[in-house]
Design brief:
Blueprint lengths: L9 H20 L7 E2 L2 E2 H28 L14 H26 L3 H22 L5 H6 L6 H12 L2 H14 L3 E2 L2 E2 L2 H24 L5 H9 L3 H33 L3 H51 L4 H4 L1 H15 L2 H22 L1 H19 L6 H13 L4 H18 L21 H25 L3 H4 L8 H19 L2 H16 L9 H6 L6 E3 L13 E3 L3 H4 L1 H4 L4 H35 L6 H27 L5 H25 L5 H21 L2 H7 L17 H19 L12
Antiparallel strand pairs: 1-2, 3-4, 5-6
């Protein structure tokens, strides 16, 4: 490798990285102290939800602008100058989507059945993706791997945004913010950590990674490791790390595909997975990165419309202002008042007491499971026998028979079910249904009892740890980095990062708004309403217990906040119905969520297939005949991995947000230390990179697996967890990243005199 070491304007980098650190970790650390209310906004909440994101955008834009001017390359806005056939095509596409929505809305008004509307719209979107896949089909190596390096910055930014805003961002983020508020539940991190982590990571991507990788003119991330360090092992280990984090990520996306497709079509979840998987494969299998890029750009238009239209309507309904990101601050104060009313409500206290009573009853049953199960069966049979002769009681008999059929089949099943239910009742037996006040930064209190102080410190530490993992993982996710290999120049790669963050921020600035508007709707207009007067959408969505459950626990005929259980995925999917929008908007939201999941799954499957074929099987061989065979093998590997991921998703694993966050820890710990040190430090050696990657991966995987309840039981480690400094397993990368850095540095220093590493790329 003959290129010079990375040339960096260190004053500019230092200033921008310092601003990034203050706007993220500095603001979050002191968020509880930033309790002033300015123009209706709690200042700490505003910075975490919006202010810091705007600063991140400014950092990336300023960096691209200054660096490109210095290098006499195009500015970030150059892609919008003049007239381009691409602009016209995308304008016509946007107009076509709006006309299609209007036409189907009129068809519904005339009387077209809802299943027909959903089927037509879903079919049109899948046909569009298939058409792009067929049009973009190729066996050319450079077209397949990096789209010929001809994608303009603005459209690559659009495709990157679609690739980035997965099912986790579109479906689950607003629901997570609804449930977790600012910072999560107790010691469990979440909330605005996702918004900060997934946007702040682009600062690291722009300043430390993307332009330098583009300079290398490689096809995959393992190609960079092979080019920078030489030998086989850096390529092999980085390829395995890429496969590991990408497979975890893609399972979450295909799970989202199944969830949305089944909702949109009424098919079974597993059939929905296979139907959506066809839409993924037709693009990535036929045309590789060339087809995937233009499919993702069209999918971005669909998903951003699907997200912004419902939240804008809810904003207009509640505040009179359709600009949701601007208007939702005034609802925060109202939610705070409603939370105080709920906390003081006797009916809520009664429900909480009943939850505690039910948990205690279940724990009594667990003392002798077989006897308790037999007694329940006998009691139900006696009631059925007593009522069976009375004609007017047949409805009650039917309910009793269902209750009898729903009882666990044996003592082992009863023990598992009753233990789970007892834990759930204890979890629900808290004020505000176990949720923190929405704008409160961190659980506990820094000025309360020792227990409150410990809870506060743990909550803040977990928030910071999760944010760190998401940011560092963003700089190391292989499917994201590959997107910046497709631009014509290094300058356009910088500009592309800026455009990506702008497009992403359109959704991320409005996700907290949607959570606030829905929470206000629930607290102000649903809580306290008669059970028989609740809106129809609640009955419809309650058919899926993982998304919505409500029941009259205290028997007063009214809905209490503690009697309502909302799944994170419901908030976005049900937003049109909550706002009273026509059915076509529900179809649009489902199709937008499908586009988000498909776009990310496209990129991830392509990354895994390329890692297996190009990096492991053919080890980056660029001989024309061998390279062509690697493309064919990549397509075959992609198909096999897609089927394996579909099988894993069909098992309905942990929540989408958790799976995605875990993949960020793996990417950050396994790839980023060796990659960044390899770019900026000439002394990084091959041995240092190999040991650093292995160390980061091993530490991260160990911490995740050692705290997984199922594995702890198998390994005989007992119940509970073995946490280091109270950090939750989802943030395992907070240990893996430093371990990888230290290992890379130490081994490089020890082996530097033996092996001279290749020089780092120029930026």
């Amino acid at each position: 490798m003959s290129s010079a070491q990375a040339t960096v304007r260190w004053p500019l980098h230092a200033a921008l990285l310092s601003l990034w650190f203050v706007a993220s970790f500095g603001v979050v650390f002191f968020a509880r102290d930033l309790d002033w209310v300015v123009a209706g906004w709690p200042l700490g909440f505003w910075f975490a939800a919006q202010g810091s994101v705007l600063i991140f955008i400014a950092i990336v834009v300023v960096y691209a602008w200054r660096q490109n001017l210095r290098d006499r390359r195009a500015s970030p806005l150059a892609a919008l100058r003049g007239s381009s056939p691409l602009h016209k095509r995308f304008s016509l596409y946007l107009l076509g989507v709006l006309c299609c929505l209007l036409g189907l809305g009129l068809a519904q008004y005339i009387g077209l059945p809802k299943p027909w509307i959903a089927g037509i719209f879903l079919s049109l979107t899948l046909v569009l993706y298939a058409a792009i896949g067929v049009y973009g089909r190729t066996t050319n190596v450079e077209q397949y791997y990096v789209a010929g390096r001809r994608i303009p910055a603005v459209y690559n930014g659009m495709a990157t945004a679609a690739d980035w805003m997965s099912a986790a961002s579109f479906i689950s983020l607003s629901g997570g913010l609804y449930l977790q508020g600012f910072s999560g539940l107790g010691e469990q991190p979440g909330g605005l950590a996702y918004v900060l982590g997934w946007t702040g990571g682009f600062c690291l991507l722009a300043l430390l990674v993307a332009p330098y990788l583009r300079q290398c003119k490689v096809y995959t991330l393992p190609d960079f490791f092979a080019l920078r360090f030489g030998g086989r092992w850096p390529r092999r280990i980085s390829a395995l790390a890429a496969i590991l984090c990408s497979f975890t990520y893609v399972v979450a996306q295909i799970y989202g595909v199944g969830l949305i497709t089944s909702r949109l079509t009424g098919l079974h979840f597993e059939i929905g997975i296979l139907l959506g998987l066809g839409g993924v494969l037709v693009c990535s299998f036929l045309g590789g990165m060339r087809a995937v890029t233009w499919t993702q750009a069209t999918q971005y238009v669909l998903l951003i419309l699907a997200f912004l239209l419902p939240v804008s309507w809810l904003s207009y309904q509640q505040t009179g202002n359709p600009l949701a990101a601007v208007a939702y601050g005034q609802q925060l104060a109202k939610i705070t008042e409603l939370e105080k009313q709920i906390l003081a409500s006797p009916a809520e206290a009664e429900v909480i007491a009943l939850y505690i009573d039910r948990a205690q009853n279940l724990r009594v049953k667990l003392q002798d499971v077989e006897a308790a199960l037999k007694a329940e069966r006998n009691a139900l049979r006696a009631q059925i026998q007593a009522l069976g002769e009375v004609p007017s009681q047949q409805a009650a008999v039917g309910r009793l028979r269902k209750a009898l059929a729903a009882l666990p089949k044996d003592a082992q099943s009863a023990r598992i079910q009753w233990s789970r239910e007892a834990n759930e009742y204890i979890e629900w037996a808290h004020a505000l249904a176990g949720l923190n006040p929405h704008t409160q930064a961190f659980a506990g209190s820094p000025t309360g009892s020792e227990q409150d102080k410990a809870l506060f410190n743990s909550s803040r530490a977990n928030f910071l740890a999760l944010m760190f993992c998401l940011m560092v993982g963003t700089a190391g996710l292989p499917h994201l980095l590959t997107r910046f290999y497709t631009t014509p120049t290094v300058g356009e790669a910088r500009a592309s990062v800026a455009w990506s963050l702008v497009f992403i921020a359109l959704l991320y600035l409005c996700a907290p708004a949607l959570a606030v508007f829905v929470k206000y709707e629930v607290m102000a207009h649903l809580v306290g309403q008669p059970m028989d007067a609740l809106p129809l959408w609640m009955a419809q969505w309650s058919k899926e217990p993982s998304l919505l459950v409500f029941s009259d626990i205290n028997g007063d005929g009214l809905l209490q906040f503690s009697e309502l259980r909302v799944g994170a995925d419901l908030i976005m999917l049900a937003s049109p119905e909550i706002g009273g929008l026509p059915y076509i908007f529900s179809v649009l939201v489902a199709a937008g969520g499908l586009a988000a999941a498909l776009s990310t799954a496209d990129g991830l499957l392509l990354t895994i297939g390329n890692a297996l074929a190009h990096d492991l099987a053919f080890e980056g061989e660029k001989n024309p005949s061998t390279a062509l065979r690697s493309v064919m093998w990549s397509k075959f590997a992609l198909l096999v991995v897609a089927l394996l991921a579909a099988y894993a998703a069909a098992q309905r694993p942990a929540g989408i947000l958790y799976l995605v966050a875990a993949s960020f820890s793996l990417a950050g710990a396994g790839l980023v230390p060796a990659m960044v040190l390899g770019i900026f430090w000439r002394g990084t050696t091959r041995a240092g990179a190999v040991v650093g990657m292995l160390t980061g991966l091993v530490v991260t995987l160990y911490y995740m697996l050692a705290n997984l309840p199922q594995l702890r039981e198998v390994w005989g480690l007992g119940a509970g967890s073995d946490l280091w400094w109270g950090i939750q397993p989802v943030s395992a990368g907070v240990f893996g990243v430093p371990a990888g850095v230290i290992a890379t540095l130490v081994v490089s220093l020890l082996t530097r005199h033996r092996v001279e590493s290749a020089p780092a790329p120029q930026g």
